[in-house]
Specification:
single chain, 7 helices, extended
Length: 191
């Protein structure tokens, strides 16, 4: 890649800072809506996740019949049935799907937090106390979710999605601001 081409691409990125800013603002607004309407956001998320699983199950079923070998056929067929059935259950029973996903997330927080806290305490890398604290917070979050079941299954996924969108939007806004304030590169001369 030539230096002039790189300079042109850098200029294009600098010009697109406004689009990144708009995307960041949209993420923050969407995240705020998800936080305020967390139950609706939870059911919408579970429904779309179920649709994606069902669609991928159908596509994998088609792939299973396109596979020429028997071993490949059965592997794809079993994967298709598992994805399709799970997607159907999430679409048909979104409340139980939200509760099951919240239970899975709670156990993930607890197990991951225990490993993070114990591992960080054993290795003691620089500033290891923050990693232990992070692990303890994850354990506490998992325990709170478990003790609030099945109620937490109604709101947690939508709330977590909203928080994630708000922080992603903030990061994108920060990136757009950094791009906007970069100095312009002078045009390079070709020899």
């Amino acid at each position: 890649m030539s230096e002039n081409s790189l300079t042109a691409q850098f200029g294009d990125v600098r010009k697109s800072w406004g689009w990144l800013l708009a995307l960041g603002i949209a993420f923050i607004i969407l995240g705020a809506v998800c936080i305020v309407y967390d139950v609706m956001a939870t059911f919408t998320t579970v429904f779309f996740f179920g649709c994606l699983l069902a669609i991928s199950g159908v596509l994998q079923l088609i792939q299973s019949f396109r596979t020429g070998t028997w071993s490949g056929f059965f592997v794809h067929l079993l994967g298709a049935l598992l994805r399709g059935f799970t997607g159907y259950l999430l679409i048909r029973y979104p409340l139980m799907g939200a509760e099951a996903l919240t239970l899975l997330l709670a156990s993930f927080f607890i197990v991951g937090g225990v490993f993070r806290a114990i591992g960080s305490g054993m290795v003691k890398f620089p500033r290891w106390g923050w990693a232990v604290f992070s692990g303890v917070v994850a354990i506490a979050l998992g325990v709170v979710l478990l003790f609030q079941m099945p109620t937490s299954g109604l709101w947690f996924i939508g709330f977590a999605l909203g928080v994630d969108l708000v922080f992603d939007g903030g990061a994108i806004i920060g990136l757009s601001s950094a791009i906007h304030h970069l100095p312009a590169l002078p045009a390079l001369r070709t020899a």
